[in-house]
Amino acid sequence: MLLHVEDLNIEFHDHIVPETVVYDFDLDMDEGEIVGLVGESGSGKSMSALAIAGLLSRHDAKKRGHIIFDGTDILNCPREELRNLQGDDISMIFQEPMTSLDPLKKIGWQVEEAMRIHKKCTAAERKERAIKMLGDVELEDPERVYNSYPHQLSGGMRQRVMIAAAMINTPKLLIADEPTTALDVTVQAQIVKLLKRINKENRTAILFISHDLSLIRQLCKRVLVMKGGYVVDGGDVEEIFTHPKQEYTKRLIDSIPHVDLSGE
Amino acid sequence: MTGVIKKTISSLLTVLVVSCLVFLAFSIIPGDPAVAKLGTQATPEKLDALRESMGLNKPLFVRFISWIGGVIKGDFGTSYSYSMPVASLIKGKLPVTIILTLYSFVLMILLSVFAAIYAARREGRVLDKIIQIITQVIMSVPPFFGGILITLIFGLGLHLFAPGGYISYDVNMPKFLGYMFWPALAIALPKGAMAFSLLYTGLVTEKKKDYARTAYSRGNSTGDVFYKHLLKNACIPVVTFFGMALADMIAGSIVIEQVFGIPGLGRILLTSIQNRDYPVVEAIIVCIAVLVIVSNLLVDILYRVIDPRTADSDK
Fold this sequence. Notes:
Largest interface: A-B, 29 and 20 residues
Structural class of chain A: alpha/beta
Number of domains of chain A: 2
Shape of chain A: globular
Number of helices of chain A: 10
Helix content of chain B: over 70%
CATH superfamily of the largest domain in chain A: P-loop containing nucleotide triphosphate hydrolases
Oligomer: heterodimer
Number of domains of chain B: 2
Number of helices of chain B: 14
């Protein structure tokens, strides 16, 4: 088992009354598996993902439960140990490709960053690897992209750059927090296809977070449905689509726009 | 690149305009250098003879052309009161003022950057709040008064340096720099406190941005996130302030030279104004104008180096 999350509870103490955003979250993932996490905004899916990635370090956030990644207790291990995993075995891509890159650093520098931190290698090796990764995420003219700044690229290209940077050390787990939400529909489909290929080629497990069930259906076998901080439904994607157990899941499925070609 | 060339040309024009204004101003304001030089011995004949030999009886335009022609070649004329070339008079003083200014500038940047990062990492905690209060106090102390306090506390109290014990840079460089640390500190502290506030605000804003989270997700330590990512971004709005501060520090060093007994441009500027020694005053003002304009030009280039978006916008 790659990832074992048990009884994860997340509470915020930034108001007078503590606010719980995630209740009793459980999740098991195997190597190379793709799991979908679906729910509306504010359902706690992003918070759970950040906690798994070890990025929920706000001092007013209280976390209880267990997150065991590959034998490491993410919630209780020292920061050093956590940093050794971040960018190496666990990577993350985010919703906003326009703001997730440092605007003042060249793309190449940013793609190489995790490699520079975790691997001992020469600058030439890093550059070669970074350009290969940029080509792998289907960016045209990787050499030019390598020497560009973020403001010179489109949103779709930046998200590909984010994926290349996240995959540079071939992590065991990639957490994708709504990676396609900010992109237009054709680019969405390309990114989903790309993630699928990456999963197949590198056996990288992917936790794919989205509010869009149809995207989850294209990519994942297994899905968890969250609402108001609770996991309300879960299991095989096709099973959920054909026989939703919960009223909420049914409504989510009904909200997917259908193209009616019957000519009524 | 074209942007830099344009800036350089406009800077050169600015220097020319400033020189014109300086020359005109001193020709218009009342006061006769010949009278100032002769004092009580002035008879109309002697005055006329002196004016003749100083070239003061030629028309204004002719005098201006010959002056500006000399300036371009580095010849600022002859001092009325010292009777020696202005260029050799200020040659030894100019480096002192420039070194003091740059010294203060470097100190200001170091102090503000380290303090701002230290405080921004501890945002909202006790140490952060203490630093905020200290900088508020420092900000409100003007350099000349800060200089007096420094002399009193570190010089006379703690004997860390000997007040008035200036040693010239061509005699002993390390001792010169050791002495200059204190006046530089007096200039750097209030400006550094202002730079601190601006940088601190920038850092606290930047650290909440998405790219900071990305940097953490790649395994960066908090220090690396601040120094490698946030600092540069937080600096963009502060660079303008750095430029203004550098120009201001040139003027500041002229004042502080008096407090610490440093023979820079400040002292000779004051005596020359009293003696109506116009060639010296004009030369010093032109030097200061050039320093200010060059520092502005450097800031502009720095902008382009830091922010690739500005460099792209003038293509």
